[in-house]
Amino acid sequence: MRFTKMHGIGNDYVYVNCLEEKVEDPGRVAKLVSDRHFGIGSDGLILIKPSKNADFEMDMYNADGSRGAMCGNGIRCVAKYVYDYGLTQKTNISIDTKSGVKYLELTIDNGKVSLVKVNMGKPILKASQIPIHSDREQVIRQPIDVEGREYYITGVSMGNPHAVVYMDDIKNLEIERIGPAFEHHPAFPDRINTEFVHVLDRSTVEMRVWERGSGETLACGTGACAVAVASIVNGYTDGEVTVKLLGGDLRVFWDRKEDLVYMTGPAAIVFEGEILL
């Protein structure tokens, strides 16, 4: 199987051009290629497919083999792949995902994609649609007991379910311990991605993320969008937010009139290769 390793601010995936390749068991292949000792090393597998509804389709799988609905960093890399490898000459493209069709605007420098702006769609704040078990219609600063400690979460879905937790210190957070406890908490029927956030000022926040099925990653695009929405809803920030992740920065703008979230960030190719399955 031919592949391309790519990353969006450190959130790395193995990409396969399924216009040419065929992947029989993507869940098994995702676990194989994601292993950082015995495989290629990645946060998961992304298949680029033809689509009847859009220019291309993105089919993504987490490192544990489970199928994901949407990946903000991953979709930027798909956009770079299809343009840089000559699958399209368009600089405004549509990509179908399990959470719907997304629309992307490409910035080109010296014939290659350098930045991608993604229309991530409408944020979902209704608890039952995220989904989060709650007696409230929206989960905003709702207390939750995790391993005997009380946290306050704000729930947002950007195609994936997210629980946003604000704290004063995220650098010393024992995320390897607390992340799985959030992920598998009974309040989250489809598991959860958890963002631990420190607000720096009215336009800047920093975050760490524990992604369901992958653990801590250097970046999460849907998570950054969820954090921006949650920060605005809680009154911590204004409409445009720079989200600082371990792998780099993303710019997120929530257009309240259209109720659409836009994310802008880079995408990069690391290397190409072949692997025996």
UniProtKB/TrEMBL annotation:
Pathway(s): Amino-acid biosynthesis; L-lysine biosynthesis via DAP pathway; DL-2,6-diaminopimelate from LL-2,6-diaminopimelate: step 1/1
Gene: dapF
Lineage, uppermost ranks: Bacteria, Bacillati, Bacillota, Clostridia, Eubacteriales
Protein name: Diaminopimelate epimerase
NCBIfam families: DapF
Enzyme Commission number(s) from the entry: 5.1.1.7
Described purpose of this protein according to its UniProt entry: Catalyzes the stereoinversion of LL-2,6-diaminopimelate (L,L-DAP) to meso-diaminopimelate (meso-DAP), a precursor of L-lysine and an essential component of the bacterial peptidoglycan.
Residues that coordinate or bind substrate: N11, N62, G72, N73, N160, N193, E211, R212, G221, T222
Example GO BP: lysine biosynthetic process via diaminopimelate
